[in-house]
Design brief:
- By secondary structure, the chain is of the alpha/beta class.
- It has helices at 8-12, 17-21, 26-30, 69-75, 93-100, 109-123, 138-150, 165-173, 190-198, 226-239, 263-269, 305-317, 324-368, 400-409, 439-461, and strands at residues 57-61, 87-91, 131-137, 156-161, 177-184, 187-188, 209-212, 242-246, 282-287, 298-304, 372-374, 382-387, 415-416, 429-433.
- It binds pyridoxal-5'-phosphate.
- Pyridoxal-5'-phosphate binds next to α7.
- One of its GO terms (molecular function) is pyridoxal phosphate binding.
- Residues 134-449 form the Aminotransferase class I/classII large domain.
- Keywords: Aminotransferase, Pyridoxal phosphate, Transferase.
């Protein structure tokens, strides 16, 4: 279906005070004019790259075809071997010049062309639908700048709970009020979201944002179903909020069923009930951190042009732009891959994480059966499990002491769930990452956790604490 987008004037009232009052960096404002044909620019204080020590930058890439990861993981073989056919890529001339020089605030035109191709390919979203993109220093950079572009202190944010700890701290720093919306195994509970919104007090400003991680959520591993997404889009139209689709694990989907469409894709395919514009309420955050490199710090945001303009104004006075070198490396990599190579790499990465997840699931069953409860994730890199702990003196059970103190003392490190609860509520849940460890380390880690849990049960049955209070909370 064709997209009709909300007019730019719609966003004027939802931008934050700071976004509306921000003064543009005067150089950044006219930077793009350097590209006008025939113009001789005396504008930017650019260094002369011939004085830089680099004369070329070379890197090699491994093949994108999916090796037999499950087999290699099971038998402990290396995933990449010296004998693999590697492609050598070299940045020289104009490519090198671009990699070493200042660039456009929103990202290099060549990278943005590639990203446009990806958004069309993966989400069916084309240019000319009232949206654009900006590349940031990882998606976290874009999340923070988007939050700043929209939120005033005291504003309300609907947030999937539990959720990514990095945004809880971010929204806190923007001094907004977080309203938890619980999850179940299908994603955020849209019925609860509806109840919250329909009983919203008349004297309070309505929430501007709903934040969620739809694929392999960090920390819960949950993948939101298409049905839930549709219901949430309907609610965003009824109650006028922007969906923050924070989706770094989209390409790490390894479920048996076809990958559900994104919010970004669905909003275009869903007509509104009253024929008003259907697109413009999704701000989508993508990241290459889990797919290509976390250290390159490459992420990007796609969404309504006025919000993106506010984000760029922020970048203009903070990071200026993300690394030109990382962008140039990505462009060269994508040019060598093509879209088919990109897809092959995605298949290879998701096959790898599926195999890792299977190893972890088997070890969970072996060591924690009867001591914990969990669902096996279909995307991402996290297992979220509930420890079957006795309730504390206040009647609530919480994993913090056991994980932070006892398990750590016994040589196993994981994250207690409390850090992922926007309201800081106690929880018996724990997050474990399955991305790195090999099978023997997974088994040893979970064996130690089992030992700790059994010892804890024993201690509780005798009403004694194994570790003196003074020694608790090691980290
Ligand atoms: C849900 C979620 N959002 C955002 C980020 C930040 O990713 P990036 O490395 O692109 O800044 C992470 C990183 O772990 C994450 O899990």
């Amino acid at each position: 279906m064709a997209a009709s987008h909300l007019p730019d004037s719609y966003y004027a009232s939802i931008l934050s005070e700071s976004a509306r009052s921000r003064r543009a960096n005067p150089i950044r404002k006219v930077y793009h004019l350097e590209n006008e044909p025939g113009v001789i620019s005396l504008l930017a204080g650019k260094p002369n790259t011939t004085m830089f020590p680099f004369t070329s930058i070379k890197f090699t890439v491994s093949p994108t075809t999916s090796p037999d990861y499950p087999e290699r993981i099971r038998t402990g073989q290396p995933l990449k071997s010296e004998g693999d056919q590697r492609t050598e890529i070299e940045l020289t001339g104009q490519d090198l010049e671009e990699a070493l020089q200042y660039g456009q605030t929103e990202g290099s035109a060549r990278l943005l062309d590639w990203l446009h191709g990806l958004q069309e390919h993966l989400h069916g979203r084309s240019r000319g639908e009232g949206w654009r993109m900006s590349v940031g220093v990882g998606s976290q950079d874009m999340l923070y700048k988007a939050g700043t572009a929209l939120l005033n202190p005291g504003d309300y944010v609907l947030i999937q709970a539990p959720t990514y700890a990095g945004v809880i701290a971010m929204f806190d720093s923007l001094k907004c009020n977080l309203v938890d919306v619980p999850n179940d195994s299908s994603g955020t509970r849209s019925s609860d979201l509806r109840n919250i919104l329909s009983s919203w007090p008349a004297d309070r400003p309505k929430p501007k944002i709903f934040y969620n991680v739809p694929f392999g959520c960090n920390p819960t591993g949950i993948t939101t179903t298409e049905q839930r997404k549709r219901e949430i889009i309907e609610l965003s139209r009824e109650h006028d909020f922007i969906i923050f689709e924070d989706d770094p694990y989209f390409n790490l989907y390894f479920g048996d069923a076809p990958r559900p469409p994104s919010f970004f894709q669905l909003e275009k395919s869903m007509p509104t009930k009253d024929g008003s514009p259907n697109v413009g309420r999704v701000l989508r955050f993508d990241s290459f951190s889990k797919l290509i490199s976390a250290g390159m710090r490459m992420g990007w945001v796609s969404g309504p042009t006025p919000i993106l303009n506010a984000i760029d104004m922020h970048s203009g006075i903070s990071s200026v732009h993300s690394s030109s070198l990382s962008q140039a490396m990505l462009v060269a990599l994508f040019n060598s891959w093509g879209l088919d190579g990109f897809d092959a790499h995605v298949r290879s990465v998701s096959t790898f994480y599926r195999a890792k997840c299977e190893v972890f699931a088997a070890a969970m069953k072996q060591h924690l059966d009867g001591l914990a409860e969990w669902d096996v994730p279909e995307a991402g890199m996290f297992f979220w499990f509930k420890l079957l702990l006795p309730p504390g003196p206040d009647g609530e059970s919480d994993s913090s002491d056991l994980i932070q103190t006892k398990a750590f003392k016994n040589g196993v490190l994981a994250l207690p769930g409390i850090g992922f609860m926007p309201d800081g509520r106690k929880t018996p849940y724990v997050r474990a990452a399955f991305s790195l460890l090999d099978e023997s380390d997974v088994n040893e880690a979970l064996r130690r956790l089992r030992e700790t849990l059994l010892k804890d049960r024993e201690d509780h049955s005798g009403e004694t604490s194994a570790i003196p209070v003074a020694e608790r909370k090691i980290w």
